[in-house]
Amino acid sequence: MMVPHKVPIIIGVGEVDNASRRKEDAIEPLHLMLRAVREAASDSCNSNSPAIISSIDSVKVVASSTWPYKDLPGLVCEGLGIKAHYTAYSELAGSASVELIDDTARMIANEEIEVGVVVGGEAMASLKTFIKDGAYPPPWTPPETAQVYYANDTDMLTGIGRAHQVGVPMHVYSMYENALRWRRRQSLLENIEESSSLYGQFAYIASQHPMAWNHGKYPRKANEIRNITKKNRMICFPYPLLMNAFNDVNLASACIMTTTEYAERMGISRDKWIFPLGGGRAKDSKDFWNRPNFYSSQAISSSLDLCFQSSGLCKDDIDLFDFYSCFPIVPKLACRHLGFPCDEPPKPITLLGGLNSFGGPGANYSLHAVAEMVRRLRKLGGLPRPSNGLVLANGGVLTTENAICLSTHARKDNNRYPTRDNNQLLPAGQLPPPVSMHQEGEALIETYTVEYNRENQPKLGHIVCRLKRNGHRIIANHGDLTTLEQLSSWTEEPIGRTGFVTRSSPMTDQNLFVFRKGDTCRM
After folding, report:
1. What's the CATH number of domain 441-515, 3.20.20.480, 2.40.50.840, 3.40.50.20, 3.30.1250.10?
2. How many CB atoms lie within 10 A of CB 64?
């Protein structure tokens, strides 16, 4: 006789946006989140939404980058008028929302909780208005600190990264894009054509989504995304502005989860139920220079593989994907691992349109993807076979990855939801090469990027190279204008070229890289 067990389901999702940038219309993140939870309760069962909210015994909150609250989960509980037995506040990482969904499903399966909510929200667009108008701080809930978050703040870097002012998202994702281009033997022009085509498709999808920051606007075409102009200046080669995440939005979302028994008891319609089947998570080194290579992501590959393993599915069972897309490289790496082209995938790879066109609500983007996935799967719920979706969430600089499979049907053979983390902290595979702070000599470029100023001019070259004599990895900046110009070229491929690394001075930790004359590879 099979022992009965609790089956976790998603019963309600809610999303809220505040499209206004006017100070008088500003709504702080906490209040956006409270609205999203109430929307999720109404979505599950409008007549019983107050009872559903009062039943919540777990509140998990995705970290807010807009406002440094003190005990945000406690404030959410207070705002909802509940006393949850369990609360959690995530790290500030784009993978966090999916991790919290997986954690909540596991707690339900382990009978630690009965009703749980995952919620997150941002009001960065409103905050930027207050700052721009000299009215900071806004009249919101008193913060724990006065610090304002900035995604590409190089002042927060340490060690080798600080010495070379490299390691924030705009640098690292660009370096991966360049390395993958080289690995695939693409020319620079072929690469930007592919990225702009991909993001042109994403822009159209976002323009159709009612929660997207660009909803209803004329979607940008591939050539607008590709062409470098004053309004679409280069940020870090090869990504212009319209290939970077756009975080100045006011958005919140929430997801309510419970058991099938509770849903039946509360009269929640069966066509509202969506089943989490299993998740997978993996973590790579937080220091990008300690990665095996820059043309693949062990963390993405491992999280996807572990997700399929824990859910009992394979890629052919998935009807809908949503791959996190702060930069084009993330969906490219996911597609490459699964073996299909990113620009013409056999199935959708985004439901929202990416963090540029849909908007990047801090670490909470993928909770919006979960909400949309739930709605799409509900529409497929009448089919005789299960319909399945997979959401991949990415955090840091390809550092933390979380994936989860959702379905219209329960797990195969009514198996129990995995009761332990399906986690791989150090993805197995090739080890990174030794990294040296200071060594001089001949070196080959492994990957690179060039940071541009606001006048669209190259400002600083960032190079990852390998010493010829011992294979050690070295981080360096450009050492002369000729090198900077060649790194910025659209006709010369820098990767694989030889140069020379020296220390900028005995008093600093900065290394400099210069090309040798006459060593030019044209594509």
Report:
1. 2.40.50.840
2. 28
